[in-house]
Amino acid sequence: MSATQRVQQWATFARTWHIFDCTWQNPFEAAQIIRKYLMGLHKPIYHPMNDCGDHIVAINTREIALPGMEWQKRVYFHHTGYPGGATWTLAWQIHEKDPTMVMKKAVYTSMRGNLQRRYTMQRLHLFANNEIPEDILANVSNQIPSPRKVPERLQEIDPERIRTYPKIMDWPEDYVLK
User: Which residue in 3, 22, 74, 141 has the most C-beta neighbors within 10 A?
Assistant: First the structure.
């Protein structure tokens, strides 16, 4: 076996640490991508009963973007186990209390049918902002590309670039705004 084949084999069996930026990402689309790496579906040795998944560090979960009216309409169910312990909580309320919870629930739900998903979720590390502890950041060796491009805010664009941007039309000099 050559040295390159040995490294390739080691990389296949090793648990790699990946980082994923959740800024402006739909958590349900992002969960499908994260699921692939958590379960090890991207590896050639994948088998449903083989625990070969990697670690995922998801940052900026506070900045997720739900489509349409999902913040007001999506409801999460919880039951304490006691009589009358059923509660339904709106997504924005959960996100306000814990900014990582909506992403965590999306990833957990996306792994439906995985018998080991409780143990697999232990390899998911969620952070509300981009401050990551040094011991975790030292392990990260790969970045998962985001499926959606993050739009640029008008406040973040250089004023010179705005001034020199080509105009579609010029207002007439006698035009009056009412």
Answer: 22
Q: In 3D, which of 57, 39, 43, 17 has the Cα closest to residue 139? A: 17
Q: Exposure of 40 by Cβ count < 10 A (0-12 exposed, 13-18 middle, 19+ buried)?
A: buried
pLDDT digits (tens, 9 = 90+) for 115-162: 889 999 999 999 999 999 999 999 999 999 999 999 888 899 999 998
Ramachandran quadrant class, 166 (left: phi over 0; alpha: psi -120 to 50; beta: rest): beta
Give the whole-angstrom CA distance, residue 51 versus residue 41: 10
d(CA 105, CA 23): 17
Token readout for 28 is 């349900």
Nearest Cα to Cα of residue 121 among 135, 102, 106, 108: 108
What is the Cα–Cα distance from 29 to 8, expressed in whole angstroms?
A: 30
Pairing of strands 75-79, 86-90: antiparallel
